[in-house]
TrEMBL record:
Keywords: Hydrolase, Magnesium, Membrane, Metal-binding, Transmembrane, Transmembrane helix. InterPro entries: CysQ/Inositol_MonoPase, Inositol_monophosphatase-like, Inositol_monophosphatase_CS. It catalyses: a myo-inositol phosphate + H2O = myo-inositol + phosphate. This is inositol-phosphate phosphatase. Pathway: Polyol metabolism; myo-inositol biosynthesis; myo-inositol from D-glucose 6-phosphate: step 2/2. It is found in: Membrane. Its EC number is 3.1.3.25. It comes from Chironomus riparius. Pfam families: Inositol_P. The chain crosses the membrane at residues 12-29. GO terms for molecular function: 3'-nucleotidase activity; inositol monophosphate phosphatase activity; metal ion binding. Belongs to the inositol monophosphatase superfamily. The keyword Manganese does not apply. GO terms for cellular component: cytoplasm; endomembrane system; membrane.
Length: 336
């Protein structure tokens, strides 16, 4: 009996000892892997709250470059990149270049591992020397509180339009001009976006599930709402054909507004000044991604005319071939 008791005690001691050893091994390995992941995070992880602040400041400082060039004779020299599918000249000015430089290099300065896809592609040596390398000042969020969420930089793709509506910029139709920056996640969904109008200083931003700029806070999609006097906003350069399409969707009473800039047209839908934004030719994804993030954040829809969602993943085509339909109210998507 005594012997059995002693064996029992020894068994207990052995089990406890093994337990302690295993626990120590666990703690050590957990600590070293924490240190590993801390090391990694400082290099490859992005704090999305900080990134949102960075996007807002980058869009504003890009807009400042646009304003600077708007005061120069001939906008620093207007060039054309060829013609669009509609036969309209595809212009580029020093404002497009300098705004791209400002946005790309200020963001890379803080978030060096970000993958950026921009309408322009400019080497640093061709950039202006007065780039603004801002600090991440959280006051640009106003009263909105955002959480710190860390994601690997390689899961994100940023789509940048440093100057939307370049042609109208050269015609001094400055109200249409915007600067757009967007974040897509690894599924290719637009999760955050900033649209900034440098000449009116209006700025809209959203981060899916976490916050929107104060000017979007009271906008909520009402997808069952039937609009009595629908308004379709369409591109100035090809209003004709889209008109018929708009009437077939929304009825004969539909009025048509011609406007430029996809950023501008998307914001008109958000603000209730247009029922729907329609486009029936090809369009580039940097024209859409930021606006898509804003539209998603209020519960609206942005789809192609075939009713497909748009993927913004890094390896996807830069062109949307099947046109565009944007709405926050009238439920056209489900009706037609
Ligand atoms: C929407 O229309 C109203 C009234 O015409 C105007 O004051 C407002 O500036 C428009 N919103 C935008 C974003 O242009």
């Amino acid at each position: 009996m005594n012997l059995g008791g002693a064996v029992k005690v020894n068994k207990c001691a052995v089990i406890t000892f093994i337990g302690i050893v295993l626990f120590i091994i666990y703690v050590l390995s957990a600590t070293s892997s924490t240190i590993e992941s801390l090391k990694k995070s400082s290099k490859n992880e992005v704090n999305l709250r900080k990134l949102i602040i960075g996007l807002i400041l980058a869009a504003k400082s890009g807009g400042n470059q646009v304003i600077k060039i708007s005061n120069e004779p001939d906008f620093g020299g207007v060039k054309t990149k060829g013609k669009t599918q509609e036969g309209v000249n595809d212009y580029i000015t020093l404002a497009d270049v300098n705004s791209h430089c400002q946005i790309a290099y200020s963001l890379w300065h803080i978030f060096p591992n970000l993958n950026l896809i921009s309408e322009e592609d400019v080497q640093k040596k061709n950039c202006p020397t007065d780039l603004d390398f801002f600090d991440l000042d959280p006051s640009v969020l106003g009263n909105v509180q955002l959480p710190d969420i860390h994601v690997p930089a390689q899961d994100l793709t940023l789509w940048i339009d440093p100057l939307d509506a370049t042609k109208e910029f050269t015609e001094k139709l400055f109200q249409y001009v915007s600067v757009m920056i967007c974040v897509a996640d690894k599924k290719g969904e637009a999760i955050a976006g900033v649209v900034y109008f440098p000449f009116s200083k209006r700025l809209y931003w959203s981060w899916r599930g976490h916050g929107v700029s104060e000017n979007l806070a009271n906008i909520k999609a009402d997808l069952d709402d039937n609009v009595q006097n629908p308004i379709a906003i369409v591109s100035l350069s090809h209003a004709g054909k889209v008109k018929d399409l708009a009437k077939s969707m929304l009825g004969e009473k539909t009025s048509i507004i011609g406007a430029a800039g996809s950023g501008y047209k998307i914001v008109q839908v958000l603000e209730g000044n247009a029922t729907i934004y329609l486009h029936n030719t090809r369009i580039k994804k940097w024209d859409l991604c930021a606006g898509n993030a804003l539209i998603n954040s209020v519960g609206g829809r942005m789809v192609t005319l075939k009713r497909d969602k748009i993927s913004y993943s890094a390896n996807s085509d830069h062109l949307v071939e099947d046109g565009l339909l944007v709405e926050i109210n009238n439920h056209v998507v489900n009706k037609t």
